[in-house]
Design a protein that fits this description.
The protein has 205 residues and is α+β, with helices and mostly antiparallel strands. 34% of the residues lie in helices and 38% in strands. InterPro entries: PRELI/MSF1_dom, Slowmo/Ups.
Length: 205
Amino acid sequence: MKFWTSEHVFDHPWDTVAHAAWCKYPNPMNCAVSGIDVVRQHPLVDGSLRSERIIQSHFPIPAWVTKLTGFSGTQYSYEVTEINPAKKEMTLITRNMNAGRFLRVDERLLYKPDPYNEDRTILQQEASVNVDLPAFADYCEKMFLNIYEMNAEKGRKGLEWVIDQFNSSSRSSSIAEKSSSQAFSDPALVLSSLHPAAQQPCFLS
């Protein structure tokens, strides 16, 4: 099993980053994600919003890996997201759904305000990869982590791209301004901002 961790700071307040993280796909910086479907979404007793999504991604892998395992590089993942407006925390936990016979990928992301600067947001990211292929496990785990690390960097750039779109659109700017002023302190604002996404699947072409 191989592990990877990273910490990144965005020069934007938490509410802006959290909103952008939810709306991150599609974006031109990271084309690996090809489909997203919201399975269910509901508020928790502590005021958090919990969302469950299925994410379809595609990763280029060597042909011999496909021949050996039957895995084509198309991955389906189950993601659970919780947004806690009181603590200003957004947590995403993801695990692969297919290829489980030989591959397990776990990912956790945490967005939280910088304790020293409320206009900045810290992203803590960690992942683990476990490959059950005798004689190939070490190589494959390193390969998958390298792919993951590259996509994580693209994901951060994609999030910045989404924020730029917010800033360039008068409508999105007004939403971001409203979110910033209320800082997601009202769970109803979180629900009104995010809940419409649960009403329709958003598979991407």
